[in-house]
């Protein structure tokens, strides 16, 4: 009897060992059924991952960014062989002679700097999140292009970058010099009077042939920097960047409510950096020829080529220049500038302190110019003589009335900062690239949570965010 029980137990043990994969020699093998489950799990996971990679971003877009589809309203034209070698040499000297380039965040030209959102510096001399110092550094206001900055920080640009605020905002703060007068120069004349430019500008202006040069800008990017997607600032009879904050002008344009007073314009971009290898260094000019729902088209930042388009109705920007490099940290609350120091060297300065040094050949340099377009010399003269100004509050009233018609009823009670953000949210739409199933830049989380937990969130995010 006892022997039978021992035999039964031995058989049971053998069966158990067989099923569990433990063999007599003590080695543990994966059982056949377990191995099948493992393969099944692997293939299902791989399949789901592939499906998510392939279709996930598209599904996310269909769910969250459906309203982001705005058709394009303009065309573009490419210019080639614009200048001679001597012209380029003179233009580079011209750029160096300008000597000091502030960051694009300092591009404040309006006498009405804000709509009431101005706030004081904190005890450490820093501006509250989203705000930057005003022209004379007496208070903090929304950056003139908060529409651009907000979208870039939220989605990390076209590359869906997941980076913390210091790094991402440094990428955004390229350097710009704008000249609103003294546009007369024989080198520039060669461009503006060339037939290819005239043809392109006429086509871009819808057939208008009288141009009124507005502005010549020199945009300088450091390695790792970008020009985030944006609309150019529009011009209206009575409402310009000199009396209305730029972000509000963008909202006016995107709302379509001020079309009857809009002045058409054309933008040209040309590249001066002979040293830039556009295949290796990136920095291509991109735009959305089919509107925000279509794919971006990229034109390489090839030396001595250019583009003409109406950037106030066609979203455009610059891919990251030398994308594998991180730019130096540029604190927007500081007074930052890029200064030519002679001998082909440039100093990056923060509050007059040198924080980095560059050679001219490290920089991506482009010329950007804009002209208003008129159907006749009389209309051009009328613009020059026009003195009426639209008040910021009148613009806000038109937008608020329209927002109420759209069902946004609380606009009269919103604090100015919230009103500004609501206006941008309602009217200014930029595309979100399908480069990630999670296009939001989660690294900015610490900036939007209550300050009591922001430090903790930041410490969690720092190891995984650049
Ligand atoms: Fe632009």
Automatic annotation (TrEMBL):
<feature type="region of interest" description="Disordered">
    <location>
        <begin position="1"/>
        <end position="28"/>
    </location>
</feature>
<keyword id="KW-0812">Transmembrane</keyword>
<keyword id="KW-1133">Transmembrane helix</keyword>
<feature type="compositionally biased region" description="Basic and acidic residues">
    <location>
        <begin position="11"/>
        <end position="21"/>
    </location>
</feature>
<feature type="transmembrane region" description="Helical">
    <location>
        <begin position="38"/>
        <end position="56"/>
    </location>
</feature>
<keyword id="KW-0472">Membrane</keyword>
<protein>
    <submittedName>
        <fullName>Uncharacterized protein</fullName>
    </submittedName>
</protein>
<feature type="compositionally biased region" description="Basic residues">
    <location>
        <begin position="1"/>
        <end position="10"/>
    </location>
</feature>
